[in-house]
């Protein structure tokens, strides 16, 4: 058997086994050494290939697809620094528990560490940020080695999904020539319909004895809260609100929890806590006796202050598989169980006699807060008002991908409970501002309507990601909050350093983004009021393709507007005793 046939059969068996296990999407960046992988993925009828030229953008695009679909996505690039450009997205995938299968092509062993071009040390390139690494054998086409290729493909797919999802990395050394032959008989192998590693991987749940132990610890408590942090399970909203209604406790729902929107009952859901927990006195008045948190730590810094202020209380953190996400450093009991099953079991098997006025107190505080958040002004639109306008008009059954810094915090403040079914996604693993455009466009690649909300610095960091929207004609609305720099720093103590603030933290860009929109074939809007923001959004939703709505604001005025809201809330709550 010649080299080309060997290379073809080895690669085809590997790719076919990925498809057998459920791979449907692969993001490929062009390059020579990765030719066998790229061509074979493009040839396979069950796999959709996405061609993203820049590897850094490609990795975040794959991340967005995987976040949206909750399925592993393959990433393919050539050797050398191309693979290094994946690094930021892989870090994000690791911390946000997103399944990626990274397939890097490499020089064969004899061309390593000898000065060959485009050859870097790729073994364990991503260190501890991948769940599993495998240096693949040089291609062979014996039955044993074709089975080996399938074994590694099946295991890679399983490892990406197993437990806490995450990235896995396989490195492929290829010798030239690199072109494969798709005219071979039985191209995909004899076992193309038989996965080599079938698995039965069940969900974790507590035993009846463990449920009783939790109940024993809770039954003497009178005041408790359930907190839902960032998570992606769409079933959680219904079961957690049923549990909270039975116990008559509030549910503090993060905007990324998937609990603030949907058809489930929301009378126990508290959505304004970030605004009213900023005050120390209010935090003390609302001191609980226990906290049960599901999902990651909430976005809200006010909530972080709340738990730090009450280090003495009993706290449970629920993780679907494993992990110790408790940045406040409080004494915590960790529950490793599927969150939906956990809530169902507590609802069926526990009875608590809690303070009857406790939930009402939270609900009243929340209503007062929302009254102030929804109060209209006649001034030029602020970032908060633009976010509020978005949530008024966003279509049902659509998605928001939100950037970090101020964007996600304004979403936290103004994304109030709604019957609309709105999936909310973000890169909150490492909380970076890089790759947000590409991630959002990746999440839009399945054809459903998506609104990407981000600031000007995040937009600037990843403008070349817009090429995917043009190339694949994606239907995306981008709400661009342009405060000409890093707006979140205006809320931090650094803002008091007038000598260095603008250069080191404010970082004004002074860019006319309308030219960027034109370059990538999008529609551009520049509304001046909240009403105009809504009109621009509705027009964008009525059209196909890319629309960018730029809301220009002033950083200092924006910070003052937010503070006025918070102060008005505090004043009314403290006057009434919260």
UniProtKB/TrEMBL annotation:
Keyword Transferase: yes
Cofactor: thiamine diphosphate; Mg(2+); Mn(2+)
InterPro entries on file: DHS-like_NAD/FAD-binding_dom, MenaQ_synth_MenD, MenD_middle, THDP-binding, Thiamin_PyroP_enz_TPP-bd_dom, TPP_enzyme_TPP-bd
EC top class named in words: transferase
Boundaries of every Thiamine pyrophosphate enzyme N-terminal TPP-binding domain copy: 13-123
Listed SUPFAM superfamilies: DHS-like NAD/FAD-binding domain, Thiamin diphosphate-binding fold (THDP-binding)
GO MF term set: 2-succinyl-5-enolpyruvyl-6-hydroxy-3-cyclohexene-1-carboxylic-acid synthase activity; magnesium ion binding; manganese ion binding; thiamine pyrophosphate binding
NCBIfam families: menD
Descriptive protein name: 2-succinyl-5-enolpyruvyl-6-hydroxy-3-cyclohexene-1-carboxylate synthase
Name of the gene: menD
